[in-house]
């Protein structure tokens, strides 16, 4: 892509921590594409840059609007601040709907270093159910007391919705945006991925179950135990790093151009 080449050559030499963040996030976009979690050129994964790069200012990377996830690379990711200013002379715009929602969460939840949002069929289907997610399968049982809901207010381009989003989420890292889709956030990208993958699987299985009949509920005590026992989310247990690394190795075998 000519614009990618222009963007890459226009960038000054990057801080090693920014390069690492860019490559990790670009790899994640390719992982989402591998899993089928894409929605044309829409939806977003954002990652806060470390303080070693920003000097303490909250800045984050977001996908360039107009590119498919399979076209995202480390060099064409766009760096923005919480005001929505593009900080790296990118030749690409950003999607206002992504900036508004993600900047709200990065700004308002201190531990939200990575935010992911999808419109998968299963995710939107469960988000459109009045009853929401059913605590009735292996995966939803691992999300006991971790799921928040936010009522649909339309396309997320209005900043005034931000305080209500934060109030709805609280400290819950798995979020169902009613009538809209799924969202997760985490202290790290792999942790946010582990939460979203578990939520997505829970929705897929619920969708399949409800096509056959009424789900069999998991008792509250058992679900709470499953969440305590899960290896997926605890930073002391890797918080999804191993599974994310395994998926990136798959991407590397297919196409490592995301590193560019």
From TrEMBL:
This is Class II aldolase/adducin family protein. Belongs to the aldolase class II family. It comes from Ottowia flava. Residues 23-207 form the Class II aldolase/adducin N-terminal domain. SMART domains: Aldolase_II (SM01007). The lineage of its organism: Bacteria, Pseudomonadati, Pseudomonadota, Betaproteobacteria, Burkholderiales. InterPro entries: Aldolase-II_Adducin_sf, Aldolase_II/adducin_N, Aldolase_II/adducin_N_sf. It holds the Pfam family Aldolase_II.
């Amino acid at each position: 892509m000519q614009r990618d080449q222009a963007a890459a050559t226009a960038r000054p030499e990057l801080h090693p921590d920014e390069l690492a963040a860019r490559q990790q996030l670009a790899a994640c976009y390719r992982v989402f594409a591998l899993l089928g979690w894409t929605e044309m050129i829409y939806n977003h994964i954002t990652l806060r840059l470390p303080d070693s790069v920003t000097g303490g200012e909250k800045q984050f990377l977001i996908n360039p609007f107009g590119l498919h996830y399979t076209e995202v690379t480390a060099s064409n990711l766009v760096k923005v601040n919480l005001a929505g200013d593009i900080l790296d002379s990118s030749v690409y715009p950003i999607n206002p709907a992504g900036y508004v929602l993600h900047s709200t969460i990065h700004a308002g939840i201190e531990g939200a270093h990575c935010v992911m949002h999808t419109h998968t069929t299963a995710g939107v289907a469960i988000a459109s159910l009045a009853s929401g997610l059913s605590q009735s399968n292996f995966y939803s049982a691992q999300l006991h007391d971790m799921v928040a809901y936010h009522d649909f207010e339309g396309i997320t381009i209005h900043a005034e919705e931000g305080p209500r989003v934060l109030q709805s989420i609280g400290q819950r890292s798995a979020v169902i945006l009613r009538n809209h889709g799924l969202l997760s956030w985490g202290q790290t990208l792999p942790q946010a991925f582990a939460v979203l993958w578990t939520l997505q699987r829970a929705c897929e299985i619920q969708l399949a179950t409800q096509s056959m009949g009424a789900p069999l509920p998991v008792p509250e005590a058992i679900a709470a135990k499953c969440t305590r026992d899960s290896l997926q989310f605890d930073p002391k247990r890797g918080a999804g790093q191993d599974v994310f690394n395994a998926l990136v190795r798959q991407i590397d075998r297919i196409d490592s151009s995301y590193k560019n």
